[in-house]
Design goal:
593 residues; Rossmann fold; GMP Synthetase, Chain A, domain 3; 9-stranded mixed sheet; 6-stranded antiparallel sheet; 17 helices; 29% helix; 23% strand; binds adenosine monophosphate
Amino acid sequence: MPFATIRKTAPAGAPPARLPDYAAACRDFDWQRARAQLDGLPGGALNIAHEAVDRHVAAGRGGKLALRWIGKDERVRDISYAELAALTGRFANVLAGLGVQRGERVFSLLGRVPALYVAALGTLKAGAVFSPLFSAFGPEPVQARMGIGEGRVLVTTEAFYRRKVAPIRDRLPRLAHVLLVGGANLDAVGAGGLPADCLDFDAAMQAASPRFPTAATAPEEMALLHFTSGTTGKPKGAIHVHEAVLAHHVTGQYALDLGPEDIFWCTADPGWVTGTSYGIIAPLTNGASMIVDEAEFDAERWYRILERERVSVWYTAPTAIRMLMKIGAGIVRGFDLSRLRFMASVGEPLNPEAVAWSADAFGKPFHDNWWQTETGGIMIANYATMDIKPGSMGRPLPGIEAGIVARGVDGRIAEITAPMAMGELALRPGWPSMFRGYLNEPERYAKCFADGWYLTGDLAMRDGDGYYWFVGRADDVIKSAGHLIGPFEVESALMEHKAVAEVGVIGKPDPTAGEAVKAFVVLKAGHEPSEAMRKELLGHARQRLGPAIAPREIDFRANLPKTRSGKIMRRLLKARELGLPEGDLSTLESDER
Ligand code: AMP
Protein backbone atom coordinates (compact mmCIF):
# COMPACT_ATOMS: atom_id res chain seq x y z
CA MET A 1 0.00 0.00 0.00
CA PRO A 2 1.66 3.25 -1.08
CA PHE A 3 -0.01 5.44 1.54
CA ALA A 4 0.84 4.88 5.18
CA THR A 5 -1.93 4.41 7.73
CA ILE A 6 -2.70 7.61 9.60
CA ARG A 7 -2.57 6.78 13.29
CA LYS A 8 -5.05 8.51 15.55
CA THR A 9 -4.12 9.87 18.93
CA ALA A 10 -6.32 12.45 20.58
CA PRO A 11 -4.50 15.78 21.06
CA ALA A 12 -4.07 16.79 24.72
CA GLY A 13 -7.11 18.66 26.02
CA ALA A 14 -9.32 17.61 23.09
CA PRO A 15 -12.95 16.81 23.98
CA PRO A 16 -13.64 13.08 24.04
CA ALA A 17 -14.82 11.77 20.66
CA ARG A 18 -18.44 10.68 20.39
CA LEU A 19 -17.36 7.22 19.36
CA PRO A 20 -14.48 6.58 21.74
CA ASP A 21 -14.33 2.82 21.23
CA TYR A 22 -15.50 1.51 17.87
CA ALA A 23 -15.32 -2.18 18.76
CA ALA A 24 -17.28 -1.72 21.99
CA ALA A 25 -19.93 0.37 20.24
CA CYS A 26 -20.38 -2.26 17.53
CA ARG A 27 -20.81 -4.89 20.19
CA ASP A 28 -23.25 -2.97 22.37
CA PHE A 29 -25.19 -0.80 19.93
CA ASP A 30 -28.90 -1.28 19.62
CA TRP A 31 -31.22 0.94 17.54
CA GLN A 32 -34.04 0.43 20.02
CA ARG A 33 -31.94 1.78 22.86
CA ALA A 34 -30.63 4.65 20.73
CA ARG A 35 -34.25 5.74 20.26
CA ALA A 36 -34.11 7.10 23.82
CA GLN A 37 -32.05 10.00 22.42
CA LEU A 38 -35.13 11.23 20.58
CA ASP A 39 -38.25 12.81 22.05
CA GLY A 40 -41.00 11.27 19.99
CA LEU A 41 -44.55 12.59 20.14
CA PRO A 42 -47.49 11.31 22.20
CA GLY A 43 -49.00 8.02 21.12
CA GLY A 44 -45.80 6.65 19.60
CA ALA A 45 -45.70 9.29 16.86
CA LEU A 46 -42.42 10.62 15.51
CA ASN A 47 -41.82 13.69 13.38
CA ILE A 48 -38.44 14.79 12.02
CA ALA A 49 -39.30 18.49 12.36
CA HIS A 50 -40.06 18.09 16.05
CA GLU A 51 -36.76 16.30 16.68
CA ALA A 52 -34.81 18.85 14.64
CA VAL A 53 -36.39 22.06 15.88
CA ASP A 54 -39.22 22.20 18.38
CA ARG A 55 -37.83 19.93 21.02
CA HIS A 56 -34.82 22.23 21.46
CA VAL A 57 -37.20 25.14 21.98
CA ALA A 58 -39.28 23.14 24.45
CA ALA A 59 -36.09 22.34 26.37
CA GLY A 60 -35.23 26.03 26.71
CA ARG A 61 -32.61 26.14 23.95
CA GLY A 62 -34.67 28.30 21.60
CA GLY A 63 -32.24 31.20 21.72
CA LYS A 64 -29.41 29.14 20.27
CA LEU A 65 -28.28 29.73 16.69
CA ALA A 66 -29.73 27.04 14.45
CA LEU A 67 -28.67 28.34 11.07
CA ARG A 68 -26.37 31.10 9.87
CA TRP A 69 -27.09 31.85 6.23
CA ILE A 70 -24.38 33.57 4.21
CA GLY A 71 -25.67 35.16 1.01
CA LYS A 72 -23.70 35.30 -2.23
CA ASP A 73 -22.83 38.90 -1.34
CA GLU A 74 -21.78 37.71 2.16
CA ARG A 75 -24.88 39.20 3.77
CA VAL A 76 -25.63 37.20 6.90
CA ARG A 77 -28.95 36.09 8.31
CA ASP A 78 -29.04 34.30 11.66
CA ILE A 79 -31.97 32.09 12.56
CA SER A 80 -32.31 30.76 16.10
CA TYR A 81 -34.04 27.51 16.96
CA ALA A 82 -37.03 29.50 18.27
CA GLU A 83 -37.21 31.52 15.06
CA LEU A 84 -36.93 28.38 12.98
CA ALA A 85 -39.78 26.86 14.97
CA ALA A 86 -41.93 29.92 14.22
CA LEU A 87 -41.00 30.06 10.52
CA THR A 88 -41.64 26.36 10.00
CA GLY A 89 -44.92 26.74 11.90
CA ARG A 90 -45.90 29.50 9.49
CA PHE A 91 -45.03 27.39 6.47
CA ALA A 92 -46.99 24.43 7.84
CA ASN A 93 -49.97 26.77 8.23
CA VAL A 94 -49.52 28.02 4.65
CA LEU A 95 -49.70 24.42 3.43
CA ALA A 96 -52.71 23.67 5.61
CA GLY A 97 -54.39 26.78 4.22
CA LEU A 98 -53.83 25.48 0.71
CA GLY A 99 -55.51 22.23 1.68
CA VAL A 100 -52.35 20.12 1.45
CA GLN A 101 -53.01 16.72 3.01
CA ARG A 102 -50.76 14.36 4.95
CA GLY A 103 -48.48 12.45 2.59
CA GLU A 104 -48.87 14.87 -0.34
CA ARG A 105 -45.65 16.00 -1.95
CA VAL A 106 -44.19 19.49 -1.64
CA PHE A 107 -41.27 20.11 -4.00
CA SER A 108 -38.64 22.81 -3.82
CA LEU A 109 -36.57 24.19 -6.66
CA LEU A 110 -34.41 26.73 -4.92
CA GLY A 111 -30.81 27.74 -4.38
CA ARG A 112 -29.48 27.53 -0.83
CA VAL A 113 -31.70 30.27 0.59
CA PRO A 114 -33.38 30.34 4.02
CA ALA A 115 -36.78 29.58 2.47
CA LEU A 116 -35.49 26.16 1.38
CA TYR A 117 -34.74 25.15 4.96
CA VAL A 118 -38.02 26.57 6.22
CA ALA A 119 -39.98 24.79 3.49
CA ALA A 120 -38.26 21.47 4.19
CA LEU A 121 -38.95 21.45 7.92
CA GLY A 122 -42.34 23.17 7.63
CA THR A 123 -43.50 20.53 5.17
CA LEU A 124 -42.52 17.78 7.61
CA LYS A 125 -44.25 19.63 10.43
CA ALA A 126 -47.43 19.66 8.37
CA GLY A 127 -47.15 15.90 7.81
CA ALA A 128 -46.60 16.33 4.07
CA VAL A 129 -43.63 14.90 2.14
CA PHE A 130 -40.69 17.05 1.14
CA SER A 131 -38.89 16.50 -2.15
CA PRO A 132 -36.00 18.85 -2.96
CA LEU A 133 -34.84 19.40 -6.54
CA PHE A 134 -31.36 20.60 -7.44
CA SER A 135 -31.56 24.17 -8.74
CA ALA A 136 -29.18 23.41 -11.63
CA PHE A 137 -31.74 21.03 -13.14
CA GLY A 138 -33.27 22.09 -16.44
CA PRO A 139 -36.98 21.65 -17.33
CA GLU A 140 -36.75 17.95 -18.30
CA PRO A 141 -35.31 16.63 -15.01
CA VAL A 142 -37.77 18.86 -13.11
CA GLN A 143 -40.70 17.48 -15.08
CA ALA A 144 -39.57 13.86 -14.74
CA ARG A 145 -39.22 14.08 -10.96
CA MET A 146 -42.30 16.17 -10.21
CA GLY A 147 -44.32 13.94 -12.51
CA ILE A 148 -43.28 10.76 -10.68
CA GLY A 149 -43.69 12.44 -7.29
CA GLU A 150 -47.09 13.90 -8.24
CA GLY A 151 -46.03 17.18 -6.67
CA ARG A 152 -48.97 19.18 -5.33
CA VAL A 153 -46.97 22.25 -4.29
CA LEU A 154 -43.75 23.75 -5.64
CA VAL A 155 -41.66 26.33 -3.81
CA THR A 156 -39.38 28.16 -6.23
CA THR A 157 -38.45 31.63 -7.48
CA GLU A 158 -40.02 33.58 -10.29
CA ALA A 159 -36.85 33.28 -12.40
CA PHE A 160 -36.68 29.49 -11.98
CA TYR A 161 -40.39 29.22 -12.61
CA ARG A 162 -40.17 31.06 -15.90
CA ARG A 163 -37.07 29.17 -17.11
CA LYS A 164 -37.58 25.67 -15.78
CA VAL A 165 -41.23 25.14 -14.93
CA ALA A 166 -43.31 27.22 -17.34
CA PRO A 167 -42.07 25.22 -20.39
CA ILE A 168 -43.27 21.94 -18.85
CA ARG A 169 -46.17 23.18 -16.74
CA ASP A 170 -48.79 21.56 -18.97
CA ARG A 171 -47.15 18.19 -18.22
CA LEU A 172 -47.66 18.60 -14.45
CA PRO A 173 -51.41 18.12 -14.02
CA ARG A 174 -51.11 17.42 -10.26
CA LEU A 175 -49.33 20.66 -9.48
CA ALA A 176 -51.91 22.87 -7.78
CA HIS A 177 -49.89 25.66 -6.10
CA VAL A 178 -46.63 27.45 -6.77
CA LEU A 179 -45.08 29.57 -4.04
CA LEU A 180 -42.62 32.12 -5.36
CA VAL A 181 -39.83 33.19 -3.04
CA GLY A 182 -38.14 36.55 -3.09
CA GLY A 183 -40.67 39.00 -4.39
CA ALA A 184 -42.49 37.67 -7.39
CA ASN A 185 -43.92 40.13 -9.86
CA LEU A 186 -47.40 38.86 -9.22
CA ASP A 187 -49.01 41.89 -10.79
CA ALA A 188 -48.00 40.17 -13.99
CA VAL A 189 -50.20 37.17 -13.26
CA GLY A 190 -52.09 36.42 -16.41
CA ALA A 191 -50.55 39.18 -18.49
CA GLY A 192 -46.92 38.26 -17.74
CA GLY A 193 -47.48 34.56 -18.10
CA LEU A 194 -47.58 33.62 -14.43
CA PRO A 195 -50.61 31.42 -13.82
CA ALA A 196 -53.13 32.47 -11.22
CA ASP A 197 -52.08 29.67 -8.84
CA CYS A 198 -48.70 31.35 -8.29
CA LEU A 199 -48.55 32.85 -4.81
CA ASP A 200 -46.09 35.12 -3.08
CA PHE A 201 -44.23 32.96 -0.54
CA ASP A 202 -43.27 35.89 1.66
CA ALA A 203 -46.77 37.36 1.78
CA ALA A 204 -48.27 33.95 2.56
CA MET A 205 -45.75 33.46 5.37
CA GLN A 206 -46.52 36.90 6.82
CA ALA A 207 -50.21 36.16 6.88
CA ALA A 208 -49.81 32.74 8.55
CA SER A 209 -49.65 32.02 12.26
CA PRO A 210 -46.29 30.84 13.63
CA ARG A 211 -48.02 28.27 15.79
CA PHE A 212 -48.75 24.89 14.32
CA PRO A 213 -49.28 21.64 16.20
CA THR A 214 -46.73 19.30 14.60
CA ALA A 215 -48.41 16.45 12.75
CA ALA A 216 -48.34 13.27 14.82
CA THR A 217 -46.86 11.21 12.02
CA ALA A 218 -46.28 7.51 12.49
CA PRO A 219 -42.59 6.52 12.39
CA GLU A 220 -43.22 4.61 9.14
CA GLU A 221 -45.01 7.48 7.41
CA MET A 222 -43.32 8.92 4.32
CA ALA A 223 -41.34 12.09 5.07
CA LEU A 224 -38.86 12.63 2.24
CA LEU A 225 -38.73 11.72 -1.40
CA HIS A 226 -35.23 11.81 -2.89
CA PHE A 227 -34.65 11.13 -6.54
CA THR A 228 -31.80 9.02 -7.77
CA SER A 229 -30.79 7.59 -11.11
CA GLY A 230 -30.41 4.11 -12.48
CA THR A 231 -28.93 2.90 -15.75
CA THR A 232 -32.25 2.47 -17.46
CA GLY A 233 -35.64 4.08 -17.26
CA LYS A 234 -36.87 7.10 -15.40
CA PRO A 235 -35.34 8.49 -12.20
CA LYS A 236 -36.34 6.61 -9.06
CA GLY A 237 -38.06 8.29 -6.14
CA ALA A 238 -36.55 6.80 -2.98
CA ILE A 239 -39.04 6.93 -0.11
CA HIS A 240 -37.75 7.81 3.35
CA VAL A 241 -39.85 7.79 6.51
CA HIS A 242 -39.81 9.79 9.75
CA GLU A 243 -38.03 6.93 11.54
CA ALA A 244 -34.96 7.80 9.42
CA VAL A 245 -34.27 10.64 11.82
CA LEU A 246 -32.86 8.13 14.30
CA ALA A 247 -30.12 7.19 11.82
CA HIS A 248 -29.46 10.82 10.89
CA HIS A 249 -29.06 11.66 14.55
CA VAL A 250 -26.83 8.76 15.55
CA THR A 251 -24.63 8.76 12.44
CA GLY A 252 -24.14 12.52 12.87
CA GLN A 253 -22.58 11.77 16.24
CA TYR A 254 -20.60 8.67 15.29
CA ALA A 255 -19.43 9.39 11.76
CA LEU A 256 -19.16 13.19 11.94
CA ASP A 257 -18.38 13.52 15.65
CA LEU A 258 -21.13 16.11 15.79
CA GLY A 259 -22.59 17.54 19.00
CA PRO A 260 -24.42 20.56 20.42
CA GLU A 261 -21.30 22.69 20.84
CA ASP A 262 -20.34 22.35 17.18
CA ILE A 263 -20.49 24.80 14.33
CA PHE A 264 -21.12 22.54 11.41
CA TRP A 265 -20.80 23.18 7.71
CA CYS A 266 -22.07 20.70 5.15
CA THR A 267 -21.30 22.07 1.71
CA ALA A 268 -23.74 19.74 -0.10
CA ASP A 269 -26.86 21.19 -1.70
CA PRO A 270 -30.16 19.96 -0.19
CA GLY A 271 -31.17 19.03 -3.75
CA TRP A 272 -29.14 15.88 -3.09
CA VAL A 273 -29.60 13.53 -0.18
CA THR A 274 -26.43 14.59 1.68
CA GLY A 275 -27.64 18.17 1.79
CA THR A 276 -30.87 17.06 3.48
CA SER A 277 -29.75 14.27 5.83
CA TYR A 278 -26.61 16.14 6.92
CA GLY A 279 -27.20 19.67 5.61
CA ILE A 280 -30.49 20.01 7.53
CA ILE A 281 -31.56 17.14 9.76
CA ALA A 282 -28.53 15.66 11.58
CA PRO A 283 -26.98 18.97 12.70
CA LEU A 284 -30.31 20.24 14.01
CA THR A 285 -31.37 17.07 15.84
CA ASN A 286 -27.95 17.18 17.49
CA GLY A 287 -28.52 20.80 18.52
CA ALA A 288 -25.53 22.17 16.60
CA SER A 289 -25.36 25.51 14.76
CA MET A 290 -25.05 25.13 11.04
CA ILE A 291 -23.62 27.28 8.31
CA VAL A 292 -25.37 27.59 4.95
CA ASP A 293 -23.46 29.28 2.13
CA GLU A 294 -25.54 30.35 -0.84
CA ALA A 295 -22.54 30.72 -3.16
CA GLU A 296 -20.83 28.09 -5.26
CA PHE A 297 -17.32 26.79 -4.63
CA ASP A 298 -14.62 29.40 -4.22
CA ALA A 299 -11.48 28.30 -2.37
CA GLU A 300 -10.72 31.61 -0.77
CA ARG A 301 -14.29 32.21 0.29
CA TRP A 302 -14.48 28.73 1.77
CA TYR A 303 -11.35 29.18 3.87
CA ARG A 304 -12.64 32.57 4.95
CA ILE A 305 -15.93 31.02 6.09
CA LEU A 306 -14.15 28.22 7.94
CA GLU A 307 -12.04 30.79 9.78
CA ARG A 308 -14.61 33.52 10.42
CA GLU A 309 -17.44 31.22 11.44
CA ARG A 310 -15.12 29.08 13.59
CA VAL A 311 -16.41 25.93 11.90
CA SER A 312 -15.56 22.88 14.00
CA VAL A 313 -16.97 20.06 11.84
CA TRP A 314 -16.84 20.25 8.04
CA TYR A 315 -18.48 17.81 5.65
CA THR A 316 -17.64 18.18 1.98
CA ALA A 317 -16.92 16.19 -1.18
CA PRO A 318 -13.92 14.90 -3.14
CA THR A 319 -14.48 17.19 -6.15
CA ALA A 320 -14.18 20.23 -3.88
CA ILE A 321 -11.18 18.75 -2.10
CA ARG A 322 -9.44 18.16 -5.43
CA MET A 323 -10.11 21.77 -6.39
CA LEU A 324 -8.61 22.92 -3.09
CA MET A 325 -5.59 20.71 -3.75
CA LYS A 326 -5.08 22.30 -7.15
CA ILE A 327 -4.79 25.70 -5.53
CA GLY A 328 -2.28 24.34 -3.05
CA ALA A 329 -1.62 24.05 0.66
CA GLY A 330 0.02 27.48 0.94
CA ILE A 331 -3.31 29.31 1.03
CA VAL A 332 -4.66 27.08 3.84
CA ARG A 333 -1.85 28.14 6.11
CA GLY A 334 -2.82 31.79 5.74
CA PHE A 335 -6.05 31.15 7.67
CA ASP A 336 -6.60 30.41 11.33
CA LEU A 337 -8.45 27.10 11.17
CA SER A 338 -7.61 26.09 14.72
CA ARG A 339 -11.33 25.58 15.50
CA LEU A 340 -11.67 22.95 12.82
CA ARG A 341 -11.76 19.64 14.67
CA PHE A 342 -13.14 17.10 12.20
CA MET A 343 -13.28 16.96 8.41
CA ALA A 344 -15.28 14.40 6.44
CA SER A 345 -15.93 13.66 2.79
CA VAL A 346 -18.58 11.75 0.86
CA GLY A 347 -20.11 11.09 -2.52
CA GLU A 348 -17.32 9.67 -4.66
CA PRO A 349 -13.98 7.99 -4.13
CA LEU A 350 -11.65 10.11 -2.05
CA ASN A 351 -8.19 9.62 -3.51
CA PRO A 352 -5.55 8.55 -0.99
CA GLU A 353 -3.49 11.52 -2.25
CA ALA A 354 -6.27 13.83 -1.03
CA VAL A 355 -6.25 12.28 2.43
CA ALA A 356 -2.47 12.60 2.67
CA TRP A 357 -2.64 16.17 1.31
CA SER A 358 -5.24 17.23 3.87
CA ALA A 359 -3.26 15.70 6.73
CA ASP A 360 -0.37 17.88 5.64
CA ALA A 361 -2.23 21.06 4.66
CA PHE A 362 -4.73 21.16 7.56
CA GLY A 363 -2.76 19.15 10.09
CA LYS A 364 -5.70 16.71 10.11
CA PRO A 365 -7.02 14.31 7.51
CA PHE A 366 -10.34 14.14 5.70
CA HIS A 367 -12.40 11.17 6.86
CA ASP A 368 -14.03 9.43 3.93
CA ASN A 369 -17.45 7.91 4.39
CA TRP A 370 -19.83 6.03 2.16
CA TRP A 371 -23.56 5.93 1.66
CA GLN A 372 -26.19 6.51 -1.01
CA THR A 373 -29.67 7.93 -1.53
CA GLU A 374 -31.23 4.58 -0.72
CA THR A 375 -29.43 4.18 2.62
CA GLY A 376 -30.58 7.62 3.79
CA GLY A 377 -27.58 8.01 6.09
CA ILE A 378 -23.89 7.19 6.45
CA MET A 379 -23.25 3.43 6.48
CA ILE A 380 -19.45 3.11 6.34
CA ALA A 381 -17.06 5.65 7.77
CA ASN A 382 -13.67 6.60 9.11
CA TYR A 383 -14.19 7.70 12.71
CA ALA A 384 -12.46 10.32 14.80
CA THR A 385 -10.77 7.71 16.94
CA MET A 386 -10.02 5.13 14.26
CA ASP A 387 -6.80 4.89 12.25
CA ILE A 388 -7.28 5.89 8.63
CA LYS A 389 -6.04 3.83 5.73
CA PRO A 390 -6.02 6.46 2.95
CA GLY A 391 -8.17 5.28 0.06
CA SER A 392 -10.50 3.22 2.26
CA MET A 393 -14.09 4.26 3.01
CA GLY A 394 -13.69 2.95 6.56
CA ARG A 395 -15.78 0.48 8.56
CA PRO A 396 -19.55 0.03 8.99
CA LEU A 397 -21.40 2.13 11.55
CA PRO A 398 -22.35 0.44 14.80
CA GLY A 399 -25.81 -1.01 14.12
CA ILE A 400 -24.99 -1.62 10.44
CA GLU A 401 -23.99 -4.98 9.06
CA ALA A 402 -22.19 -4.79 5.72
CA GLY A 403 -20.74 -7.51 3.53
CA ILE A 404 -19.12 -8.23 0.20
CA VAL A 405 -21.37 -10.60 -1.71
CA ALA A 406 -21.61 -12.43 -5.03
CA ARG A 407 -24.07 -14.77 -6.69
CA GLY A 408 -22.99 -18.37 -6.26
CA VAL A 409 -23.39 -21.24 -8.71
CA ASP A 410 -26.69 -22.05 -6.98
CA GLY A 411 -27.94 -18.61 -8.00
CA ARG A 412 -28.06 -17.37 -4.42
CA ILE A 413 -26.36 -14.30 -3.03
CA ALA A 414 -23.70 -15.23 -0.50
CA GLU A 415 -21.02 -13.40 1.42
CA ILE A 416 -17.40 -13.58 0.31
CA THR A 417 -15.21 -13.48 3.37
CA ALA A 418 -11.71 -13.74 1.84
CA PRO A 419 -9.85 -10.46 2.43
CA MET A 420 -9.64 -8.16 -0.59
CA ALA A 421 -11.92 -10.30 -2.74
CA MET A 422 -14.03 -8.12 -5.00
CA GLY A 423 -17.81 -8.36 -4.93
CA GLU A 424 -20.91 -6.25 -4.52
CA LEU A 425 -21.20 -4.16 -1.41
CA ALA A 426 -24.33 -5.25 0.46
CA LEU A 427 -26.08 -4.36 3.72
CA ARG A 428 -28.39 -6.30 6.00
CA PRO A 429 -31.78 -4.55 5.73
CA GLY A 430 -33.51 -3.00 8.69
CA TRP A 431 -31.67 0.19 9.68
CA PRO A 432 -33.98 3.17 10.35
CA SER A 433 -33.06 5.30 7.32
CA MET A 434 -33.29 2.49 4.80
CA PHE A 435 -35.48 3.52 1.87
CA ARG A 436 -38.92 1.97 2.10
CA GLY A 437 -39.60 1.85 -1.61
CA TYR A 438 -39.20 3.51 -4.98
CA LEU A 439 -42.41 5.48 -5.38
CA ASN A 440 -44.93 3.44 -7.39
CA GLU A 441 -42.25 0.97 -8.50
CA PRO A 442 -42.44 -2.06 -6.19
CA GLU A 443 -40.65 -4.32 -8.67
CA ARG A 444 -37.67 -2.04 -9.01
CA TYR A 445 -37.49 -1.93 -5.21
CA ALA A 446 -37.78 -5.70 -4.80
CA LYS A 447 -34.88 -6.18 -7.21
CA CYS A 448 -32.55 -4.42 -4.76
CA PHE A 449 -32.93 -7.22 -2.22
CA ALA A 450 -31.87 -10.85 -2.37
CA ASP A 451 -31.26 -13.59 0.14
CA GLY A 452 -31.34 -11.32 3.16
CA TRP A 453 -29.18 -8.52 1.68
CA TYR A 454 -29.77 -5.07 0.25
CA LEU A 455 -27.57 -4.87 -2.86
CA THR A 456 -26.01 -1.44 -3.27
CA GLY A 457 -24.88 -1.59 -6.90
CA ASP A 458 -21.31 -0.73 -5.86
CA LEU A 459 -18.33 -3.03 -6.20
CA ALA A 460 -15.97 -3.10 -3.25
CA MET A 461 -13.47 -5.15 -1.24
CA ARG A 462 -12.96 -5.63 2.49
CA ASP A 463 -9.54 -6.11 4.00
CA GLY A 464 -8.56 -8.29 6.93
CA ASP A 465 -9.15 -5.43 9.41
CA GLY A 466 -12.71 -4.91 8.19
CA TYR A 467 -11.99 -1.71 6.19
CA TYR A 468 -13.94 -1.33 2.94
CA TRP A 469 -12.35 -0.28 -0.36
CA PHE A 470 -14.46 1.13 -3.19
CA VAL A 471 -13.84 -0.39 -6.61
CA GLY A 472 -16.54 1.11 -8.87
CA ARG A 473 -20.17 0.96 -9.82
CA ALA A 474 -21.59 -2.37 -10.91
CA ASP A 475 -23.69 -0.53 -13.50
CA ASP A 476 -23.35 2.33 -16.01
CA VAL A 477 -24.46 5.09 -13.67
CA ILE A 478 -22.20 8.16 -13.80
CA LYS A 479 -20.83 10.10 -10.82
CA SER A 480 -19.87 13.63 -11.78
CA ALA A 481 -18.93 16.21 -9.15
CA GLY A 482 -20.61 13.94 -6.60
CA HIS A 483 -23.91 13.85 -8.50
CA LEU A 484 -25.34 10.58 -9.68
CA ILE A 485 -26.41 10.82 -13.31
CA GLY A 486 -28.46 8.25 -15.17
CA PRO A 487 -27.14 7.86 -18.74
CA PHE A 488 -30.67 7.12 -19.90
CA GLU A 489 -31.92 10.55 -18.87
CA VAL A 490 -29.14 12.22 -20.87
CA GLU A 491 -29.70 9.93 -23.86
CA SER A 492 -33.43 10.65 -23.83
CA ALA A 493 -32.90 14.41 -23.92
CA LEU A 494 -30.48 14.15 -26.86
CA MET A 495 -32.84 11.81 -28.68
CA GLU A 496 -35.41 14.59 -28.67
CA HIS A 497 -33.24 16.56 -31.10
CA LYS A 498 -34.46 16.14 -34.66
CA ALA A 499 -31.00 15.26 -36.04
CA VAL A 500 -30.28 12.46 -33.56
CA ALA A 501 -30.84 8.80 -34.41
CA GLU A 502 -29.06 7.06 -31.52
CA VAL A 503 -27.11 7.98 -28.42
CA GLY A 504 -24.90 6.20 -25.91
CA VAL A 505 -23.74 8.06 -22.81
CA ILE A 506 -20.81 7.20 -20.55
CA GLY A 507 -18.84 8.67 -17.66
CA LYS A 508 -15.30 9.53 -18.70
CA PRO A 509 -12.63 9.92 -15.99
CA ASP A 510 -12.04 13.54 -15.13
CA PRO A 511 -9.25 14.72 -12.82
CA THR A 512 -11.49 17.13 -10.90
CA ALA A 513 -15.11 15.98 -11.19
CA GLY A 514 -14.29 12.26 -10.94
CA GLU A 515 -16.26 11.58 -14.10
CA ALA A 516 -17.54 13.82 -16.90
CA VAL A 517 -20.57 12.99 -19.03
CA LYS A 518 -19.70 12.09 -22.63
CA ALA A 519 -22.23 11.27 -25.36
CA PHE A 520 -21.71 9.30 -28.57
CA VAL A 521 -24.24 10.32 -31.18
CA VAL A 522 -25.36 8.72 -34.42
CA LEU A 523 -27.03 11.28 -36.68
CA LYS A 524 -30.09 10.65 -38.84
CA ALA A 525 -29.66 10.48 -42.60
CA GLY A 526 -29.44 13.97 -44.04
CA HIS A 527 -27.46 15.37 -41.09
CA GLU A 528 -23.70 15.58 -41.15
CA PRO A 529 -21.32 15.67 -38.19
CA SER A 530 -19.76 19.11 -37.83
CA GLU A 531 -18.53 21.47 -35.16
CA ALA A 532 -21.72 23.47 -35.54
CA MET A 533 -23.83 20.34 -35.00
CA ARG A 534 -21.80 19.43 -31.92
CA LYS A 535 -22.36 22.90 -30.47
CA GLU A 536 -26.04 22.75 -31.26
CA LEU A 537 -26.45 19.39 -29.51
CA LEU A 538 -24.44 20.52 -26.49
CA GLY A 539 -26.63 23.62 -26.26
CA HIS A 540 -29.82 21.60 -26.68
CA ALA A 541 -28.81 19.19 -23.90
CA ARG A 542 -27.79 22.00 -21.58
CA GLN A 543 -31.03 23.82 -22.08
CA ARG A 544 -33.16 20.70 -21.51
CA LEU A 545 -31.17 19.10 -18.72
CA GLY A 546 -29.38 21.96 -17.01
CA PRO A 547 -25.63 22.18 -16.42
CA ALA A 548 -25.61 19.54 -13.66
CA ILE A 549 -26.56 16.72 -16.02
CA ALA A 550 -25.78 17.83 -19.58
CA PRO A 551 -22.85 16.17 -21.40
CA ARG A 552 -19.59 18.03 -21.58
CA GLU A 553 -18.39 16.20 -24.70
CA ILE A 554 -20.11 14.81 -27.77
CA ASP A 555 -18.52 12.56 -30.38
CA PHE A 556 -20.19 11.43 -33.59
CA ARG A 557 -20.27 7.79 -34.66
CA ALA A 558 -21.63 6.02 -37.73
CA ASN A 559 -22.96 3.25 -35.50
CA LEU A 560 -23.00 2.21 -31.85
CA PRO A 561 -22.12 -1.24 -30.46
CA LYS A 562 -25.30 -3.10 -29.45
CA THR A 563 -26.29 -6.37 -27.88
CA ARG A 564 -28.35 -8.86 -29.81
CA SER A 565 -31.41 -7.55 -28.01
CA GLY A 566 -30.61 -4.08 -29.32
CA LYS A 567 -29.27 -2.46 -26.13
CA ILE A 568 -26.44 0.00 -26.62
CA MET A 569 -23.32 -1.37 -24.93
CA ARG A 570 -22.17 1.62 -22.93
CA ARG A 571 -19.54 -0.55 -21.26
CA LEU A 572 -17.92 -1.15 -24.63
CA LEU A 573 -18.14 2.51 -25.64
CA LYS A 574 -16.34 3.33 -22.42
CA ALA A 575 -13.66 0.66 -22.81
CA ARG A 576 -12.92 1.89 -26.33
CA GLU A 577 -12.87 5.52 -25.27
CA LEU A 578 -10.35 4.71 -22.55
CA GLY A 579 -8.33 2.17 -24.53
CA LEU A 580 -9.20 -0.58 -22.06
CA PRO A 581 -9.73 -4.28 -22.80
CA GLU A 582 -13.12 -4.78 -24.44
CA GLY A 583 -14.07 -7.73 -22.21
CA ASP A 584 -16.77 -10.25 -23.02
CA LEU A 585 -18.19 -9.51 -26.48
CA SER A 586 -20.39 -12.58 -26.76
CA THR A 587 -23.59 -10.54 -26.73
CA LEU A 588 -22.34 -8.00 -29.28
CA GLU A 589 -24.53 -7.79 -32.35
CA SER A 590 -23.72 -4.85 -34.60
CA ASP A 591 -20.36 -3.23 -34.42
CA GLU A 592 -19.62 -0.95 -37.30
CA ARG A 593 -17.72 1.97 -35.96
P1 AMP B 1 -26.08 9.13 -4.27
O1 AMP B 1 -27.18 8.15 -4.15
O2 AMP B 1 -26.30 10.17 -5.29
O3 AMP B 1 -25.71 9.70 -2.94
O4 AMP B 1 -24.80 8.33 -4.81
C1 AMP B 1 -24.38 7.17 -4.14
C2 AMP B 1 -23.20 6.57 -4.83
O5 AMP B 1 -22.07 7.45 -4.75
C3 AMP B 1 -22.72 5.29 -4.18
O6 AMP B 1 -23.49 4.18 -4.55
C4 AMP B 1 -21.29 5.24 -4.69
O7 AMP B 1 -21.23 4.75 -6.01
C5 AMP B 1 -20.87 6.71 -4.66
N1 AMP B 1 -20.20 7.02 -3.39
C6 AMP B 1 -20.73 7.61 -2.29
N2 AMP B 1 -19.80 7.75 -1.33
C7 AMP B 1 -18.67 7.23 -1.81
C8 AMP B 1 -17.34 7.06 -1.29
N3 AMP B 1 -17.01 7.49 -0.09
N4 AMP B 1 -16.43 6.45 -2.08
C9 AMP B 1 -16.76 6.03 -3.32
N5 AMP B 1 -17.98 6.16 -3.86
C10 AMP B 1 -18.92 6.76 -3.13
